Amino acid sequence: MLDHLTVVTHPLVQHKLTIMRNKETSTAGFRRLLREISLLLAYEVTRELDMTTTTIQTPLCEMEAPILDGKKLALISILRAGNGLLDGILELVPAARVGFIGLYRDPETLKPVQYYAKVPEALEDRLVIAVDPMLATGNSSVAAIDLLKEKGAKNIRFLCLLAAPEGIERMKEAHPDVPIVTAAVDEKLNDHGYIVPGLGDAGDRMFGTK
Ligand code: URA
């Protein structure tokens, strides 16, 4: 079982994250690093996938070899920044089923408002990995996991790049059964709900918007 919180301290992850945090890093650079880092995070979040064996014939002999068991896993991108993490993970797990949940943060209340949801069928039989680079207040992450549970998901993990202590607490309260995997836990949130020191608005950094 993964712990409730796993911080991936691998040197490559930490090095790439530092470059992503730097405000001088270009949109192209940010995007490339996010794709690279998501491969490394995907490795961690997919630890302990169910395995079985199959009989194969190597050039030398027959063997019982390990393969993944069960239904294809479901990756759920929390729009729009989740797509940056999704692309990298899909390179590693190309057969995964993919869903999208669109939530925007009301700038006054900082509460999530859902505007889109399309998720794969049979969520109850899959490992479901929800991805969003920034676990800030935790409001949208909690709302996304609420929705996934309403749709039947039972085995869910949450993958992000950066987490604020406030977001981790909120997730732990609302969904103690959902392990979080992140590259770093930052100091705090500012008054606008941004992670400090953070990396700014992940969607803007990724897509070159303001
Ligand atoms: N979303 C972001 O993109 N950045 C933050 O710091 C917090 C939420």
Automatic annotation (TrEMBL):
Means of activity regulation: Allosterically activated by GTP.
Q: Which gene encodes it?
A: upp
Per the record, the domain of life is Bacteria
Record lineage: Bacteria, Pseudomonadati, Pseudomonadota, Alphaproteobacteria, Rhodobacterales
Q: Give the protein name, as stated in the record.
A: Uracil phosphoribosyltransferase
Spell out the InterPro entries in the cross-references.
PRTase-like, PRTase_dom, Upp_B, UPRT, UPRTase/APRTase
What are the EC numbers? 2.4.2.9
What residue stretches are annotated with the Phosphoribosyltransferase domain? 7-209
Q: Gene Ontology terms, cellular component aspect?
A: cytoplasm
Give any GO molecular function from the UniProt entry.
Answer: uracil phosphoribosyltransferase activity
Q: Name the cofactor(s).
A: Mg(2+)
Primary enzyme class: transferase
Question: Matching HAMAP family, A to Z?
Answer: Upp_B
Its UniProt entry gives the catalysed reaction(s) as: UMP + diphosphate = 5-phospho-alpha-D-ribose 1-diphosphate + uracil
Q: Sorted alphabetically, which CDD domains does this protein's record hold?
A: PRTases_typeI
UniProt family annotation = Belongs to the UPRTase family.
Q: What does this protein do?
A: Catalyzes the conversion of uracil and 5-phospho-alpha-D-ribose 1-diphosphate (PRPP) to UMP and diphosphate.
Q: In which pathway does it act?
A: Pyrimidine metabolism; UMP biosynthesis via salvage pathway; UMP from uracil: step 1/1
